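# step 3/5: fold
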Amino acid sequence: MSGRSDREARREERLREEEQTGTAERRQKLIKVGSATAFLALAAVAVLIVISQSQTSGGDSNNIQRASEVNRDLQGIPQNGMGLGNPNAKTIVLEFADLQCPVCKGYSEEVLPQVIESRVRSGEARLEFRNYTIIGSESKPAGAAAIAAGKQGRGWNFVEIFYRNQGSEDSGYVTEEFLTAIAKAAGVRDIAKWNRDRKSERVLAEVAASTSQAEELGFTGTPSFALKGPGTSGLETLGTPGSASALEAAISSAS
């Protein structure tokens, strides 16, 4: 009996050691996967920075570029406020961004077009722009101008055309003339109303509120994403997906 008890004790101890070893190995695998994912995301962000910085400096109210391209690409997709896509879509993707952010510019040109064409245009998901004004003093009036354009159904046109003509951060390019030129290029019909709206306390408060929301979600940079759908537990944060396919996969999981 004594020998059998010893054998059973040694067996139980060996099983505990194997379980602990297996747990440690699984933990290490998760750490490696997480590190690889983080590395890929950082690499993708670095590429977006290079792309955005390699383009023209922009910020010229007398030379607004690529507006017809943006307006063509967004044509036929419903817009409601700062929402792009079917207002009844089951999955909602929130993008927290700063219009002055060069990485946001790169993301809008290299990542979002695929997602908009495949997931938003089809009605599977709606994409909502939320201001997260962290760059500087010019970010807030730029964000308010976008919201005011959204009140006339041209919010996403404004955002995308602004990015295509983005100047150097807080260099003084976000002037009345520049914002008005972007609004006109985006197809805002009533410029007088747009001017009133973008300077109103209500719209400026909306910019501040979405910035506070981004901070409450724990975001520290732009662009950052969160989504909500039938497959999520409320609003779930994504951070900055490293590619269009990564963002599409998240949408599929949430839908």
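# step 4/5: annotate
The longest strand covers residues 91-97.
# step 5/5: archive (pending)
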